[in-house]
Inverse folding.
């Protein structure tokens, strides 16, 4: 295929903006102090989308694996990784929708996340529309303006 | 804050897996041929989440900008970028939920995407739950198994 005519890098670099910390049942996203200012106004939202890096799957071999049996179950059909949520994929990005329990300084306490302790977090975005109408859902007024 | 005790890199590298191509009203995700095998089974889903890179905002200055007036409207309150969908953010990742119109070889035609022509795509994940009940929504049988 043709590459874009403009100059386009063939890689992009991301830096962790924080880490998942798990202590018993408590789950905290600890934001690095350099990025704490980026949390202003987050308390107006009930839910966030947490972007993290499947760091334990960030190996050259796993990043080359293009087909898997979903959920590690060989009775599931061999499936391209872009048709699964497998942690094994070319760019091992994870997303999780989480409920905010509290925000104190650089620490966001969330209800739960399916990630290991110390997983690097690369971005946080607010959830703008309820995916499951019926659960407690809240956005700030500026979102509602047309 | 304490860094994790295990060795943890302070950056992660991503490679484009394809590019957005816009021709008139037609929107195609052109997957690089190296990654075409990762599309197997994607036709079983009605919708995908497209992860792309806000490449025009990938500058050192914009990546250091932690607060913005949402939607570029100065009447909106100054807000931390993690509480907005602003393209200006430490790691300029974008996500869009798109409807699949067709998949032919390495080309996925989608309904629409709010991205520039030639935007690099870094990941594709299937949409597992309908965010807007009522729109046409479909997943393969292996998803429905408990």
């Amino acid at each position: 295929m043709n590459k874009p005519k403009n100059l386009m890098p063939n890689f992009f670099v991301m830096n962790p903006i924080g880490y998942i910390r798990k202590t018993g049942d408590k789950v905290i996203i600890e934001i690095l102090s350099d990025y704490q200012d980026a949390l202003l106004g987050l308390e107006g939202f009930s839910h966030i989308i947490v972007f993290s890096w499947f760091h334990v799957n960030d190996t050259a071999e796993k990043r080359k694996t293009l087909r898997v049996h979903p959920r590690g179950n060989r009775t599931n059909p061999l499936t391209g990784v872009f048709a699964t949520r497998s942690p094994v994929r070319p760019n091992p990005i994870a997303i999780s929708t989480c409920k905010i329990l509290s925000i104190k300084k650089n620490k966001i306490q969330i209800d739960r996340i399916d990630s290991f302790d110390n997983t690097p977090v690369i971005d946080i975005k607010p959830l703008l529309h309820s995916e499951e109408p019926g659960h407690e859902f809240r956005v700030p007024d500026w979102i509602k303006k047309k």
User: Anything to note?
Assistant: Chain B touches chain A through 66 residues (CB under 8 Å).
